[in-house]
Amino acid sequence: MTVGQLLRRWRQVRRLSQLELAIQAEVSTRHLSFVETGRAAPSREMLLRLADHLDVPLRDRNELLLAAGYAPAYPAAPLDSPELTAVRDAIRQILAGHEPYPAVVVDRAWRLVDANTSVAVLTEGVAPELLAPPLNVMRLTLHPDGMAPRVANLPQWRAHLLERMRRQLLTGDDELAALYDELRGYPGGEPGADVETPGPSSFAVPLRLRHRERELAFFSTTATFGTPLDITVAELAIESFFPADDDTRKYLQSL
Q1: Which Pfam family, an example, fits this chain (predicted)?
Q2: Which secondary structure element, helix H or strand E, spans residue 179, and what is its range?
Q3: Which of 99, 117, 188, 196 could form a disulfide bond with 154, CB atoms 3.0-4.6 angstroms apart?
Q4: pLDDT (tens digit, 9 = 90+) per residue, 141-194?
Q5: Domains of the chain
Q6: Angle between helices 3-13 and 44-53 (to 10 degrees)
Q7: Are 66 and 73 in contact (CB under 8 A)?
Q8: Hey, CA dihedral for 130, 135, 141, 147, is it positive or negative?
């Protein structure tokens, strides 16, 4: 794609008109139109400003720059590199501090980057091959040999996860699209499957998981790093699971 085509795609993904984007980024609508149609070449500064207002992920900002003939602006250091020591330390502190409740760190494609020891409550009984690296958290959760048989509200939880992935697909990521198609083919979403609607007192979609002789209930939060300038850091997400009822809290603390 040309840089103009990429900009137009991101503008449409964010559901902005040329006028709305031009006003936000303080550029003329005429010039923005010329950039999108290839009649004008954007400056590097203009591209980065437009990408910022379009909330384009760092990886895709580099793609915009390359399409316009500029050098990439954002590095992608390996997580085990010396430059990201502080990031690794922060992750380990967060994971350890969340015990005795499960927490995982994933990348943009839902590959497991790190986890605390309490995640064993979630993964108990899954097929060993699903735990082999590179472990994909979405596949682990919805695969019939993974957590799926133990998820008491599988249709509801499956619908929740697939909707999260569907929103990610707006970025046009081929790897995510292939994973999404794979997950949709797993059992648990057959026509007529009963998708439980959260009650009026609910504040989040719960994960109800059978563990030995109990049914545990969790809700989750997602944390990311603020104002990242490195692609690796920008694409990390920390998913923390909290007990959704007192019985789950007491049981996990007893472990």
Answers
A1: MLTR_LBD
A2: helix 174-184
A3: 188
A4: 999 999 999 999 999 999 999 999 998 888 778 899 999 999 999 988 665 555
A5: 3-67 (1.10.260.40), 82-254 (3.30.450.180)
A6: 20
A7: no
A8: positive
